[in-house]
């Protein structure tokens, strides 16, 4: 689709799996605009990911490996790369045993339960989750017992199986850091309202979906990319107003004018969205962790400015914040 957009000079909007950095090449894809950023100092890391037909995780992992191997900034030895089919079986156990010896997730709950069963929930381990969906420690299904600062239900709550193994998953979650899109500033009430209404909304204007799946979708969780779809249409509406002001006759179909109009900043449901001259969302990532009360805390923000990484810390004492759940002892790497 990207190449067809270039060939026929048609605006193309991306909102889901377009995290691969190649889509930020404005020469190859001059009319592509996406509301997801490109994907992202340890010395030994193990990487687990689950493949799918659109290669979402594959692109993130490729970009991460490229960054890890850049010796001009730092060097990280990737001691293990595991392609996991999300099945809780002997293969996963064997690979985690290898990780235990070498380095000391799509389904975070399954991963956490297996890690706990292998006695890998102690202070010896830190698990770092990479994402671009803006969930942090949350999940797409709402209505849980606890609510995070972003208005979402924490992922350790099993809302489909009467909270089975919540305590086990929650214990492993204390050893996790999550690197995800920053959604600070988004109203928690607005996010809850959207999560509650977006699924049944497909039965109304303009979709009027009348299939059995649509008519019986009450209580179902929203899609993990639903907020990105909201933001890409919001971006299109804002840009269309400007493009029509510039070109009242052909502004709605002039891909060049539309592309220029999309270079803007707005607050969406996935956080602060800034589209650069390449048609790509400027990355603003946050390192999230949990405090002793399992509240989600933003520790570090980082972005790119003219191609240079820029980091800001939201803590003063790392022992009582980042490493609070480890008794204040820093892990064997630094930020």
From TrEMBL:
Domain of life according to the entry: Eukaryota
The name this protein goes by in its record: ANF_receptor domain-containing protein
Keyword entries, A-Z: Membrane, Transmembrane, Transmembrane helix
InterPro entries on file: ANF_lig-bd_rcpt (IPR001828), Peripla_BP_I (IPR028082)
Record-level GO cellular component terms: membrane
Family annotation (Pfam families): ANF_receptor
Localization per Swiss-Prot or TrEMBL: Membrane
Receptor ligand binding region domain: residues covered: 1-292
The keyword Transcription is annotated on this UniProt entry: no
Membrane listed as a keyword: yes
């Amino acid at each position: 689709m990207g190449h067809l957009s270039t060939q026929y000079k048609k605006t193309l909007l991306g909102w889901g799996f377009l995290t691969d950095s190649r889509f930020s090449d404005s020469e190859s894809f001059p009319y592509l605009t996406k509301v997801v950023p490109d994907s992202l100092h340890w010395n030994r890391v193990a990487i687990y990911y689950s493949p799918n037909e659109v290669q979402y995780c594959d692109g993130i992992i490729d970009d991460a490996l490229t960054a890890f191997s850049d010796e001009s900034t730092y060097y990280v030895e990737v001691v293990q790369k595991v392609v996991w089919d999300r099945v809780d079986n002997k293969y996963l156990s064997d690979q985690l045993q290898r990780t235990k010896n070498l380095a000391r997730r799509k389904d975070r709950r399954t991963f956490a339960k297996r890690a706990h069963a292998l006695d890998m929930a102690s202070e010896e381990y830190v698990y770092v989750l990479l994402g671009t969906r803006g969930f942090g420690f949350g999940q797409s299904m709402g209505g849980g017992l606890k609510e995070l600062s972003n208005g979402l239900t924490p992922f350790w709550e099993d809302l489909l199986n009467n909270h089975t193994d919540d305590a086990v998953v929650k214990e492993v979650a204390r050893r996790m850091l999550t690197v995800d899109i920053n959604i600070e500033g988004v109203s928690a009430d607005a996010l809850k309202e959207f999560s509650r209404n977006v699924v049944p909304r497909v039965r109304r204007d303009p979709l009027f979906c009348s299939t059995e799946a649509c008519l019986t979708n009450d209580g179902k969780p929203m899609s993990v990319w639903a907020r990105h779809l909201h933001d890409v249409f919001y971006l299109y509406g804002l840009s269309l107003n400007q493009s029509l002001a510039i070109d009242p006759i052909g502004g709605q179909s002039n891909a060049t004018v539309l592309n220029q109009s999309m270079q803007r900043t707005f607050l969406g449901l996935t956080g602060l969205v800034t589209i650069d001259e390449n048609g790509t969302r400027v990355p603003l990532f946050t390192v999230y962790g949990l405090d002793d009360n399992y509240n989600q805390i933003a520790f570090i923000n980082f972005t790119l400015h003219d191609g240079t990484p820029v980091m800001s810390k939201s803590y003063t004492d790392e022992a009582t914040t980042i490493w609070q759940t480890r008794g204040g002892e820093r892990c064997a790497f630094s930020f």
